[in-house]
Amino acid sequence: MDLAVHMQAVRKTYGSGPGAVTALADLTAEFPVGSFTAVMGPSGSGKSTLLQCAAGLDRPDSGQVLLTGVDLATLDEHRLTVLRRDRIGFVFQAFNLISALTAAQNVRLPLLLGGRRPSDEEVGWALAAVGLAERAGHRPSELSGGQQQRVAIARALITKPAVMFADEPTGALDTRSGRDVLDLLRTVVDQHGRTVIMVTHDPVAASYADSVVFLTDGRMIDMMERPTADQVAARMTHLERR
Ligand code: ADP
Ligand code: MG
Q1: Does residue 139 sit in helix, strand or coil?
Q2: Which of 6, 40, 44, 79 could staple 75 via S-S, CB 3.0–4.6 A?
Q3: How many Å lie between the centroid of ligand 1 and the Cα of residue 213?
Q4: Residues 50, 60: Cα–Cα separation, whole Å
Q5: What is the pLDDT along the chain (242 residues), one digit of tens a residue?
């Protein structure tokens, strides 16, 4: 089984002395190529830190992160930046689009930053992939929340990343737009062959994934294959009562 991300005994502590917080406590987790995984757990359990370390945005204190087989610890800052740009897409709860730019200009940005002039075809492809070909000239303020998140997914998709990380991508959306975004993430896996790792609080969102990993206190304490929303909700209730 090829792994898109392999985390081995990853430890991450913020601060030092008596106030130190261990966000990841020797966490080990495997994310196969072409899979959609939901990461769940109580607030403060280390979900965002897991994404940051897996994406090379933050460096673990110890342990190993392999991204498409590359040990991130062996890369200097420059090579890490290049790897992030080429192989990783990020989608956030707050969309993080640039308000002065049109949808098309936002989507072009990762390639421009990589020193490449994107063709209109590439940008058109990415916007069409999220169903927004007709909105290319719209600014974020002229789009609904769900449409803005789809632009953010197009922006993540344009580099054809190996792994797309999403931190509560539906957290700011109404139910209907949230489902559209989840259907789209499913498409990113099923039709575009990408790997998606998504943090969520929502059992319905988690049910779109192939599997769910449950974190508590920076450790992976459980996982579930082919989750249903009801099963996930029951497991979460159990975890939060521990
Ligand atoms: P989650 O996303 O599951 O809510 P986080 O990964 O954001 O959890 O945080 C895990 C723990 O690490 C929490 O106790 C949080 O307060 C702490 N933490 C996260 N980021 C920082 C930081 N930059 N500085 C200090 N503590 C942090
Ligand atoms: Mg978080």
Answers
A1: coil
A2: 79
A3: 18
A4: 10
A5: 799 999 999 999 999 999 999 999 999 999 999 999 999 999 999 999 999 999 999 999 999 999 999 999 999 999 999 999 999 999 999 999 999 999 999 999 999 988 888 999 999 999 999 999 999 999 999 999 999 999 999 999 999 999 999 999 999 999 999 999 999 999 999 999 999 999 999 999 999 999 999 999 999 999 999 999 999 999 999 887 76
Give whole-number Cα distances, 98 to 141, 178, 195, in Å.
Answer: 10, 21, 25
Beta bridge partners of 197: 37, 165
Q: Ligand 1 site: residues with CB under 6 angstroms?
A: 14-15, 21, 23, 41, 43-49
Question: What's 202's domain CATH number?
Answer: 3.40.50.300
Asked if residue 202 belongs to a domain, the reply is yes
Q: Provide the domain count of the chain.
A: 1
Which residue owns the Cα nearest ligand 1 atom 27?
A: 14
Ligand 1 atom closest to Cα of residue 15: 25
- Please tell me the distance between residue 122's alpha carbon and the centre of ligand 1 in angstroms: 37
pTM: 0.95
Range of the domain at 172: 33-58+75-241
In a domain, 18, yes or no: no
Question: Is 80 within the bounds of a domain?
Answer: yes
Hunting for tokens 């991450």 — which residue is that?
Answer: 12
Is 132 inside a domain boundary? yes
